[in-house]
Automatic annotation (TrEMBL):
GO molecular function: DNA binding
Function, in words: Site-specific tyrosine recombinase, which acts by catalyzing the cutting and rejoining of the recombining DNA molecules. The XerC-XerD complex is essential to convert dimers of the bacterial chromosome into monomers to permit their segregation at cell division. It also contributes to the segregational stability of plasmids.
Subcellular location: Cytoplasm
Subunit-level organization: Forms a cyclic heterotetrameric complex composed of two molecules of XerC and two molecules of XerD.
GO aspect biological process, one term: DNA recombination
Protein name, UniProt field: Integron integrase
Gene3D superfamilies per record: 1.10.150.130, Intergrase catalytic core
Sequence similarity: Belongs to the 'phage' integrase family.
The organism of origin for this protein: Simiduia aestuariiviva
Cited Pfam families: Phage_int_SAM_4 (PF13495), Phage_integrase (PF00589)
């Protein structure tokens, strides 16, 4: 039952054109849920009570983060709706995992400069896009050559978080480095084209059927390609994928240490810093919301809380020290 049922779940995920990362995540949590309840057959799969019991187990016994618990719930609900054709019910009353409200880690302009001085090559350019355009790390590594518009100084973020697309700003200070990166990509592209075993770059949503030549065009190639080919796990074709997120993440972590920055800064801190520095420069919150791709302005308002802390909001009573 397990392998056949999990294949059904996997096929349902692929029908929805979810990313390979989402596929792996959903399969993990669906499998965990089935094992927790010790289901042996499809007919044994229960309803809302079993789901609630599992979610409480994650919160109370495993101490998972709120986001992890939410991801598990999304995967389970997907299984019920897309595979079992059952509405699983309402879970607003279950014991949710609680976590402290955290303010984003924001770097100063000087810290950003010091961080960049410790970085080299494509990962430095990735960091520049995360800070200069407010991109998430996955949005950065997934960029393709055609997503850059040097004339309009903008970046097209396609199929970002929540499968939403947007246009964000491009710093003119990155143009020269980005053009050099495209030259590097062109060299790899010409080399790949000369190899008969190369199957072209991956295209989402079966676009290769509508545009059969697109996988073999420069514009569709990843801006930050991997060093070597890999086998596409869905099609078994040989492709040159983009670099994995961890390449940029490790490079930023190393740079934070080398720059002697005593903050828990990560790639996402560069995006936080982009938003905060825009607001400091006088940008209105609605503009920042659009640049970041937030569906709700309340998400963006967290950066106003950062600005309102310290000397900009309260005058300290300390005078003589």
């Amino acid at each position: 039952m397990k392998s056949l049922f999990m294949k059904e779940v996997r096929d349902a995920i692929r029908t929805k054109h979810y990313s390979i990362k989402t596929e792996h995540t959903y399969l993990y949590w669906v499998g965990s849920y089935l094992r927790f309840n010790q289901y042996q057959s499809r007919s044994e799969i229960g309803g809302a009570d079993e789901i609630r019991s599992y979610l409480n187990h994650l919160a109370l016994d495993n101490n998972v983060s709120p986001n992890t618990q939410k991801t598990a719930l999304n995967a389970i609900v997907f299984m019920y709706r897309a595979v079992l054709n059952i509405e699983p019910g309402d879970f607003s009353d279950f014991h949710k995992a609680k976590g402290p409200q955290k303010l984003p880690t924001v770097l100063t302009h000087d810290e950003v400069h010091r961080l960049f001085t410790q970085m080299r090559g494509p990962t430095r350019l990735c960091a520049g896009l995360m800070y200069g355009s407010g991109l998430r790390v996955m949005e950065t590594v997934r960029l393709r050559v055609q997503d850059l518009d040097f004339d309009r100084l903008c970046v097209y973020v396609r199929d970002g978080k929540g499968r939403k697309s947007r246009i964000t700003t491009l710093s003119p200070h990155l143009v020269t480095a980005l053009k050099a990166q495209i030259t590097l990509v062109s060299g790899l592209f010409r080399r790949d084209c000369s190899e008969p075993l190369w199957d072209g770059v991956y295209l989402p949503y079966a676009l290769h059927k509508k545009y059969p030549r697109a996988p073999f065009e420069l514009g569709w190639q990843y801006l930050f390609p991997a060093d070597n080919w890999s086998i596409d796990p869905r099609s078994n074709k040989q492709r040159r994928h983009h670099v994995v997120e961890s390449v940029a993440q490790r490079a930023v972590k190393r740079a934070v240490r080398a720059a002697d920055i005593h903050k828990p800064a990560t790639c996402h801190s560069l995006r936080h810093s982009f938003a905060t520095h825009l607001l400091q420069a006088g940008a209105d919150i609605r503009t920042v919301q659009v640049q970041l791709g937030h569906a709700d302005v309340k998400t963006t308002e967290i950066y106003t809380h950062v600005l309102n802390r310290g000397g900009q909001a309260v005058v300290s009573p300390l005078k003589d020290f």
